[in-house]
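Memo to structure team: turn this sequence into structure tokens by end of day. - J.P.
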Amino acid sequence: MVIRCGRRLSRALAFCVSAVAALVAAGSAHAGGGYFILGYGPYAHQTSGTVTATGMDTFVGSSNPGKLNAVGDRLDLGMLMFHPYRKVSRTGAQGDAEIFNFSSTSENEFYLLPDGGYARRINDRWAWGVTLYGNGGLNTEYNGDTGIPNTNSNPGSTRCRNQNPGNFFGGCGEIGFDLAQVIVAPTLSYRLTDRHSFGISPQFGFQQFKAYGFQGFEPLSKHPGNVTNNGYERSFGAGVRVGWFGQLTPWLDAGASYATKIYFEPFDEYRGLLADGGRFDIPANFAVGIALKDDNVTLALEVHRIFFGNIPSLANGVTDTLTDPVNSGFGDRNGSGFNWRNQTNYRASLTWHATPRLDLRTGFTYGRRPNADGQVDTASFNMFTPNPQLNLNAGFSWRWRPDTELHLAYGRYTRAEYEGPSAVFPGATEKVQPHVDTLYMAWSLLW
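Reply from structure team:
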């Protein structure tokens, strides 16, 4: 069998190459906490990610591969623009530590993230495609410090000088993380019957990470030379996503998908900071959803579960190293992490086919923070990864021509403020005040 793809596939491949370069250059993309964007592609950004049983664009590799047979032949190219604001502050530190009562606002406040997908039917039973998307969310950079020379907590570090003032965690200079992840997901789908189809998407991942300003943690690490300020470290990984899509009745569709953990090579340059020797895998996750529809309106509901608790660098408590640095030093499998638990997100969306050319969509997602609230074992590190609990999105798709769609979506992350007792400065309280606005634009070509 010969599949002829022509110019459209060439355009798609060219886009993938350029988009990967842009993703890596842009750094992490998701300012809403964690590193899962709520959804990928034009329909997901209009509906807060409610696309397991609806949203027939080419981003099935990121949501539900079983939908690919319902997509048809199309190309989607999009750009996410977002503006995060994050401010951290500390109050209540006593004695010599009182000089560490200050606030700082993250310098990284605007990002661009391209994405894209391609889909094509092979015959009445088979379809194939590819999805390119990115995760992120640990890109924070705080420049505040005590303003007083000789106040960093590790003056013997080769990365500090004795006279440097201390930053928010007692190191020196700017302090922050930068994480970027890119996933390429080729997809193959088979229509078992007229109503049921199944799909599979291998997930090939690339990620890069750097941390800086954590000199204060070097004395507590198994590998003090691999804690901070080592530039970008890169690694590759792989996993798989499978999915089912069912058109159960003329008015009811349903879908389900499961993604394994994406296993990455460890970050060797930061094996003295991240738990489990620098490993930072993408956790397994699953989603189930339904879509109730008629000629004018579609109501979609779904549940999404992410297993953050199975990744030691995320799940371990903040105080694990601070209370037992000998047996649980930074970088050890039992070393400090973010104290994240598994997270369940509840999503709903409404689509109104207002005219033959115009679709209006809105959606929301609610989920408890993965980081346990208000605990000394949680608060400090989560100053770098604020986790909003509610997301609202709205947008539209306009068929400019029968074979062309234009898409626009706006999103707002709310209920994000987080506060808790400091693990680094006992008796102090730390607080992060973030908010995020997003704007997504996309173009689709159908044939």
